[in-house]
Design brief:
Number of helices: 2
GO cellular component, one term: cytosolic large ribosomal subunit
CATH architecture: 2-Layer Sandwich
Protein name: Large ribosomal subunit protein uL30
Pfam family, one: Ribosomal_L30
Order of helices and strands: EHEHE
Helix content: 25-40%
Number of strands: 3
CATH topology: Ribosomal Protein L30, Chain: A
Radius of gyration: 11 Å
InterPro entries: Ribo_uL30_ferredoxin-like_sf, Ribosomal_uL30_bac-type, Ribosomal_uL30_ferredoxin-like
Distance between the termini: 10 Å
Subunit structure: Part of the 50S ribosomal subunit.
Strand content: 15-25%
CATH superfamily: Ribosomal protein L30/L7
Length: 65
């Protein structure tokens, strides 16, 4: 887990699995990351809060740094 990468401390997150069958709290975490549809990509500031959300739903998202 890099603190600062070449893009100025951001991390790209892609939703790679559908939300059907996942826990309601995990669906809320995905929405908090700004991901709505399959293959949505968001570039977010790399912070402990964002990393915590990513770790919670690690089986639904892919980190593209």
């Amino acid at each position: 887990m890099a603190k600062n990468n070449a893009t100025g401390g951001t991390v790209k997150v892609r939703l790679v699995r559908g939300l059907a069958g996942s826990q309601a709290r995990h669906r809320l975490s995905v929405r908090a990351l700004g991901l709505n549809k399959l293959n949505d990509v968001r570039e977010l500031k790399d912070s402990p809060q964002v990393r915590g959300l990513i770790n919670k739903v690690h089986y639904l998202v892919r980190v593209e740094e």
